[in-house]
Sequence to fold (681 residues):
Amino acid sequence: MTEQADAPVRRGDGPGGRFPRFPALAAGLLAAAWLIPAALQLVDADWLLPPLLLFGTASLLRVGTVLLDRLMIAGGLLGGAVIGAGLLFSAWPWHLSPMAVGWFGLTVLVVVGLVLRRRPQLPRRVLGTDLIILAAPVVSWVLIRKPVQGQTFSNMLPYTSARQDFFNHYALYDAIHRIGGYTFMHPAAARHYVTTPNEYAYPSGAHFLYAVLDAFRTSSSNPGDSVDEFLRYYQYEALGVGLLAMAVIWSARWVAGPALTGWRRALVCSVVGGMAVLGQMSALFWQGYDGEVIGLAFLAMLFALVVQPPARVREQILLAAALIVGVVYSYSLYFIFIGVIVFCAAVVYRKRLLRHWRFALVTAIVAIPVAAVPYVMAQLHSYGTQGLFTQGGTTLRFSRALSLFFGVVAVAPLATRAGRRLPRWRVVAPVILISTAISTYTGYIGYQATGMTRYYYEKMVEGTWTMSLVAFGAVGLFLKSALAAPAGASRLDVSRRRHWLTTEIPASVAAFVLGVTVSSGFPLTKGPQWSQGPRPIQDVSWAALWAGGPITAPYAHALAMYGQHYQFGDGQATALLYSDSAADEMHATMFLAVLNHDLGKMGFLGLDGSDNLVSLQPPAKGQGLPDAAKSALGQLESWLSAHDPGFRVVIGDNYLARLLTDWSAQNPDMRMKIEIVKGLS
Fold:
């Protein structure tokens, strides 16, 4: 990390760091960029291309003097670039072919390196807190995967089928994988896989990124069997939450700056890591917020790299552009925060940026139209932005007290002379204040219209919460280091006085334990006995709640019974009628539909209103069905008759099954299959 030094931008890297302009070398490198993907395709080893692209990108950057910093920044740049390049991949004939995408990526890297005459270079420096950042996704993965580890597909159903949002996100990913690009570029084909208007309205950058990753992993753009594909996507969901935790912790360290050392740096990373891995943020996984998770990761990195800019201005501009694309394509609602971040940073760093205004203008001319695509699509084909904040939905509320605490810490540097002297805190404070005001206003919009705050207001709170975590390094201004060097001491003398083995390392370990404990409770404590209240209590790990297994799908038993008689993903359009709750039947039917790749055709919302039919009893002799039952039955029959011939209805052995069997016999043209499974209800 660097402070605010504005290093000159050079086309090369000084003596010994520039590529010579040899045509033969250029031709050889370009040939390698073409041959490597082809060779890896031949041996089904395309999974090597993502790390090759990551390290190749990192080696051409000159931002960051710590190896992990360079790799994190390269990952953010590469992720945003792949999402933006998805417009090209969606249009060209090879779509998500791993060989074609790998060829394109390596060619771009070679051309950039040749034009800038940069030799591949990576820093060797590492920091102790790298271990915290690298451990975050590992711990997150272990906790998230604990309920399903080693289980069969049927035994995993209580967790893999727990939320409707899971199904919608998988359907988007599945559609992108099978049509070979963004759904808004192939809307007619996408409508078979996703419910309208999701082909336009829902930002799908995260799903596109996962589809590209899966193509590399499987060495094929064909996702294959739907059950295997679904399980891989479930893994990517867990991976995304781990990457979010990693991004937030790293961003907090970057913003804190190199002056924050030793136990103070460990304390900041552990508090932020505890919140991200074990605390409130872990709940984003089991609520099924896949797009938001990746959007928050990009937002955290964008915030960090804009408020604490790298030394090279042009690289900062390119990084910001790529991360903005990543945020908007993954969760376009956060474009509001992007505007606040960019405006505040431009005001504080205006002199720095004006020296490169031409480069910034050209980058903006390219990046802004690309970034605007998903937002424009959502505006044209779905709700307007303000309309979102009056929509309903169920979500956990993040603690307002904790949100206030981290927000106060973020703006506290302006109360100190040292904080006011550092430009980054003059950016952080107004960003947090303005973003909090905007989020509060979105809550007011919903409250004024409905008498309560609404679903997307909570999403705004989660955005400001993430930025506040990134700014937590501000506490370093209030922690005086006992290991500070005396004035005039040489670097060697200072290193000797610190006594790493006896002082620094124990202090850092103690700070880490304290930070994790205070932020989210001991990670090994038993999760709370939570009964779907407003939110879990704060003195234990939220992640332990999921890992302990109490959050399960109410329709998992019916799906497991279905799996004993039928094959999941067999391609047969199916409705599962087993409950008096139409919502449960909708969810179970939706799950079967996404595995059959026909969610868009199912129109599962047509089941809404068909409650209390499964337990329906035959009326007394001489009497008919109650009016409410007649209405619900008529709605169900209307929905069933709208499907193609051969539609299968799996139902328990009950009176409703007899009614539907008689009704189907009276309408032989529908050729509907009414199949009874005992013990389904």
Q: What stands out?
A: The beta strands are 574-577, 648-651, 673-676. The longest helix spans residues 226-256. The longest strand covers residues 574-577.
